[in-house]
Amino acid sequence: MADVNRGDRPLSPHLTIYRPQITSISSILTRITGNALIVAAVLIVWWLLAAATGPEYFATADAVLTSWFGDIVLTLSVLAVWYHYLAGLRHLLFDAGRALDVPTAERLGWACVIGSVVLTVITVLIV
Fold first, then answer.
1. pLDDT tens digits for 6-31?
2. What's the pTM value of the predicted model, to 2 decimals?
3. Do 27 and 84 form a contact (C-beta atoms < 8 A)?
């Protein structure tokens, strides 16, 4: 019969010895930005529905989206759009069987992070 005594074996990978890598962080960020874009889409749809409802309700929604809170949310949404776009391009490369070696995958992970910040700054400055 199989050995059922598993109490002495450590979890793998254990949190005390595991070092997060850019490839795993990039994967987690892709999921986080995808969910954050859902929240931003709900806010924008709320704003559009408020515009269709009436001037009083639109004034409330517009005040929220043009406040400092709305500015932060929309700026972070632009960051999320750019990051999600660049990570999608990265995964297209992976799906094509390219850039699968560790150094290239790490460089592409950093390119997604840095590129999304740079493109966000350019977008905010233009708009």
1. 666 666 666 677 788 898 899 899 99
2. 0.81
3. no
Place of tokens 């043009």: 66
Tokens for 111, please give them. 């390119």
For 61-111, what is each residue's pLDDT tens digit?
999 999 999 999 999 999 999 999 999 999 999 999 999 999 999 999 999
Tokens standing for 101?
A: 């070696």
55-84 in b/e form (b: 16+ CB < 10 A) is eeebeebeeebeeeebeebbeebbbbbbbb
Domains and CATH numbers, the chain: 22-126 (1.20.1300.10)
**SS3 readout for 45-103:** HHHHHHHHHCHHHHHHHHHHHCCHHHHHHHHHHHHHHHHHHHHHHHHHHHHCCCCCCHH
Which DSSP letter does residue 36 get? H
At residue 104, the 3 state secondary structure works out as: helix
pLDDT of residue 9: 66
